[in-house]
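In response to reviewer comment 3 from the previous cycle, which asked for concrete evidence that the modeling workflow produces usable outputs, we include below a single protein chain processed end to end. The sequence was submitted unchanged, and the resulting structure tokens are shown without manual editing.
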Amino acid sequence: MQRVLSITNNLNLIPTIILLGSFLIPITFITYLYETLPNWEAAIPEMFICFLWGGAVGVVVAGFLEFNVLETLGFLPMLAVGLIEEGAKLILPLGFYFRGRLRSEATGILLGTSSAMGFAAMETMGYAFVTLLQSRGNLLVLDSVLFARGVFSPAGHAAWTGLVCAVLWKQRLRSGHTGLNWQVMVAFSTAVSLHALWDIFNSFRGNTFIGALKIELLSLLIAGISLGLLNKRIDEAKSS
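The workflow returned the following structure tokens.
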């Protein structure tokens, strides 16, 4: 696509590049989970709703709340960002959760990761657009943003929201009714904390090569922990 753009110099292709670059990995990851998890409840329509509307509603709600926090406090703590975004991504999955029709833990993971990947894709589109403007149309810089955010989205947004939804659905199966308990609160607190740590480490810029390497390793550690927690829930859902 970018080769065609460089040859034709047709700027109308730029939105397509941003769209494909933002959505390719999130959709691929959701498809992989759908094929991997035991899906007895055929949640494809619900997954589509969570991906499209869950992502859109989550981005709008998170953006509005984060703006208000910034306006009120004069700064934006990373913990507040994690709290707001993790809550915003749960809006659509919680709607299906309280309806009570889709009850398996696997379905909870699918709905949670779908909403999270929709959120990540739409957030990436925003970052890509701003990057393109700030770099004055530098496609190499745009490429790096789309690639980095796409590759890490399963270990970030998807892992955090998938973890919370897995615990929500599992606890309902155990107790027989909807509701929050300490296991759900621990899962949500874990997601918020990992999100905040990820943002903190990625906001730093090492002044030396060693300093930058340490920050990258810490970010990879958070990504590894996040994916590990999600994989544990996926394995549990497969065996249940």
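The radius of gyration is 18 Å. We consider this sufficient to address the reviewer's concern, and the full set will be provided in the supplementary archive.
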